[in-house]
Amino acid sequence: xxxxxxxxxxxxxxxxxxxxxxxxxxxxxxxxxxxxxxxxxxxxxxxxxxxxxxxxxxxxxxxxxxxxxxxxxxxxxxxxxxxxxxxxxxxxxxxxxxxxxxxxxxxxxxxxxxxxxxxxxxxxxxxxxxxxxxxxxxxxxxxxxxxxxxxxxxxxxxxxxxxxxxxxxxxxxxxxxxxxxxxxxxxxxxxxxxxxxxxxxxxxxxxxxxxxxxxxxxxxxxxxxxxxxxxxxxxxxxxxxxxxxxxxxxxxxxxxxxxxxxxxxxxxxxxxxxxxxxxxxxxxxxxxxxxxxxxxxxxxx
Length: 301
Hints:
By secondary structure, this protein is of the alpha/beta class. The chain has helices spanning 5-16, 27-36, 75-81, 101-109, 151-162, 173-194, 198-203, 205-224, 232-242, 251-258, 268-278, 283-292, and strands at 22-24, 38-42, 45-49, 52-54, 65-68, 91-94, 114-120, 123-127, 130-133, 139-144, 166-169. Helix 6 crosses helix 9 (232-242), helix 8 crosses helix 9 (232-242) and helix 8 crosses helix 11 (268-278). The protein is globular and about 50 Å long.
């Protein structure tokens, strides 16, 4: 559900390795997949797959697993659209940004169907029908919301591994989700604000300092929310950022350049809202929200 950089890439890997896979997409991307299949280009791979693609989930029917990877503003509508895909044993792996998606899916589709997840990959739709992966990493972290190991999680891990996807079964997926949130809030804000790739952001002392401030505020909000993240997380994520390809831009920066809607309200916006709730100052993220406010709805908004 959602055939962009995340859903398109991981779905293509599963389809290529023999798993019966269907794609829910729309517009020119859907038309291109129908004509020529879904193509994938990466630092170490180039392949295409031909699989069922539709904008109508009723044509697919109940499935074993749903990889849910739409943009955050589409969550409620896409979740409702998923209902024809839900059978008694269907599992929904949430691979969205932010920290609110899991609960939104649980309230719409039923908590027992939902598995929390984190995707660590830099990929995008380069053109209709083509997913371009930039990062070397292609990792999915996942785990049950009750922190128990389950048979379905083991089956998921096996399928992902067979498809050549790094799979990590997290002991506490909520911690993993917030850990990524700290990182992604900073990367999204700075590559969007500066209109520059991460290589230039991390190399300049002033933009690097602002990146660290944005992540630190997100960390303080997580800690206030009761998430057991250590102060060392910011330094660890900066180290991770230093290892990214210099040309990487967060998906929000790519959306900004293309005139599309931004996930800003669910990233820096969440830090500001929760900061106010917990009495934590968030001046850096507040600045980000104000600076990008006029772009949030995209050029057509």
